Amino acid sequence: MIEVERTLTLQHPLPDVVAYLADFAHTEEWDPGTVSCRPARAGAAVAKGSEWQNVSEFRGRRTELLYRLVRFEDRRLTFVGRNRTATSTDDMTFGEEDGGTRLTYRARIEFRGVARLASPFLRKEFERLGDEVVRRMPEAVDGHLGAGRRPAR
After folding, report:
1. 2 and 108 Cβ atoms separated by less than 8 Å
2. Which domains does the chain have, with CATH numbers?
3. Structure confidence by residue, pLDDT tens digits, 92-115
4. What's the pLDDT tens digit per position in 35-80?
5. Number of other residues whose CB lies within 10 A of the CB of residue 62
6. For residue 79, which of 24, 17, 8 has the smallest C-alpha distance?
7. Burial 84-123 (b: 16+ CB within 10 A, else e)
8. Interatomic CA distance for residues 12 and 39, integer angstroms
9. 131 vs 134: CA distance, rounded Å
C-alpha cells in the first residue's frame, strides 16, 4: 500500500471548494495522472453513491477505475476507485483558514496480486504526483471559481 498526504490552502470559501471537488470529473483539471473522468450517469446530480469512469496514466500505462463517492459531508469527501489490480482511495478533509479553505488530501492505493510487489518501487513516483497536485489544484480551483476571489470578512 502507498499513501501520500498533502495539505494546502485554497483562497475560496469552504462550501465552494467542497462543491467543486465533490464532482470527481474535475480531476481532469487538477490530477496529473487523470486522462479523462466522466460521470457514470450523465446529468445526474452529485451525491453520495455517485460514480465516475476514470482513465489514468501512470508510467506510460493507462488504466481504468470506477470511482464512487462514499462519503459526502460538509467538511469531508471520500472517493474509492477500483479495478481488478488496485483500489484507490482519495480522502479530502476541509477546514476554514484565514477566510479561505485548508484542504488535507490523502491518496492511498492498494495493489492486488502480482502488482502488489511493485508498491515499494513506486512510492517516489506517487510522492512526485502528490507534489504536482499541490501545484495544480489551486490553479484549477481558481479557474473554476474565479481567480483572486476572496470570501468577505
Report:
1. yes
2. 2-145 (3.30.530.20)
3. 999 999 999 999 999 999 988 766
4. 999 999 989 999 999 999 999 998 888 999 999 999 999 999 999 9
5. 11
6. 24
7. eebebbbbbebeeeeebbbbebbbbbbbeeeeeeeeeeee
8. 25
9. 5
Look-up: residue for cell 487538477? 30
Backbone angles phi, psi at 40, to 5 degrees: -65, -30
Please report which residue ranges of the chain form alpha helices under DSSP H.
Answer: 14-22, 27-30, 119-145
Count other C-beta atoms under 10 Å from residue 40's C-beta: 12
| The C-alpha cell that represents 79 in the structure block | 472517493
What residues contact residue 63 under an 8 Å CB cut-off, 6+ apart?
Answer: 55, 56, 57, 83, 85, 86
- What phi and psi, each to the nearest 5 degrees, are found at residue 33? -90, -15
CB 89 within 8 A of CB 78: yes
Quote the DSSP letter at residue 22.
H
